[in-house]
Amino acid sequence: MLEIWLWQFRRRSGRFSLLQKNGLALAVGILIVGPAFAQTAAQSGSPSPPSGFPDATNTGVPAGTKLTPSGALTISTPGAVIDGLDIKGVVTINASNVTLQNSRIAAANWTVIDIRGSGATIQNCEIDGLAAEGVRGISGAGTFLRNNIHNVEDGIYVAGSQTLIQDNYIHDLKSDWSGPHYDGIQIDGNVSNVTIRHNTVINDHDNTSAIMIDNYFGPITNITVDNNYLSGGGYTIYSDGQFTGGAVTGVSFTNNYVGKGRWGSFSINKNTPHMAGNVEGAPSKR
Q1: How many CB atoms sit inside 10 A of residue 5's CB?
Q2: How does pLDDT run across 143-164, given as a tens digit for each residue?
Q3: Which residues have C-beta within 8 Å of that of residue 229, sequence separation ≥ 6?
Q4: Helix or strand (DSSP H, E) at 53
C-alpha cells in the first residue's frame, strides 16, 4: 500500500506542474542552419534489450540519412509528410493524417511531439526530451513505429483512441527535477482501442512503470499489450482502476517478457485484465 500511496501523490503533483506548463510549451522555436547527418545520441544508461526486440540498431533515423536543420514546427496542412529533418524545438501537429518520419527531434519542453490532429504517424524518428522537467516524448494518438525515445519522463503519453505503438525503443528515462514519476508508456483514461506490440520499454528507476494504464481521466476499453520487453519501475506494469473516471475493461497482457520492478511485475487494481503467455522475471538488466 505504501508504494501505491506514494505513486498517487507524485502523479497528482506532477500532473499539476505539467498542466501549468502547457500554456507556455510552444512559445519559443530555434532555427539552426547547416548540414547534418543522422547520428545516434550518446545513450549510456539503459543496457541493450534481449535479442529480437527493438534497440538502437533498428529504431530511430535510418543510418546514413541526410538531415536538414529546422527549428520548431507547427503543421496545419492535412496529409503533410515531414521527412529528413533535424528539428530543434517542439513539433505541433494540428492537422489530420500528418506523417513525421526519418527525423531527429529534440526539445526541452513539456512534450517533444504534440499531436492534436487525428491519424498522425510518427515513424523512424529519434525523439530526445533533453531531460527537461516533466517532458513527454510523444503526447497524443496515432501510429508510432520504430522510434528511439529517450531523455524523457514519459516516453509516449496516449491522449486519444485508435492508437498503434509498435517496434519502438523507449529507454534512458530522465527528467531533471525533484519529483519525476517515470512511465515508458502512459494511458490516463478516456482512451479505447490501443495496441502496444513488440516494443522495448526500459525504466531504470525504481518508481512508477514501464506501462501505466489507469482511469484517472475517464474509462479504459480495449487495450492490447502483446509481445513486448518491459522492465523496471516500482511495478513494471500497472492496470489500475482505483480512480473515479470509469471502468477499466478489455485490457489484455499477452506474451510479454517482464523484468521485475522494485516491488514486482504487475500491479492490478479494481479490474481483471486477460493475461496469458507472459514470462515474468525475465532478465531486467538493471
Answers
A1: 9
A2: 999 999 999 999 999 999 999 9
A3: 49, 50, 53, 199, 200, 201, 202, 256, 257, 259, 282
A4: none
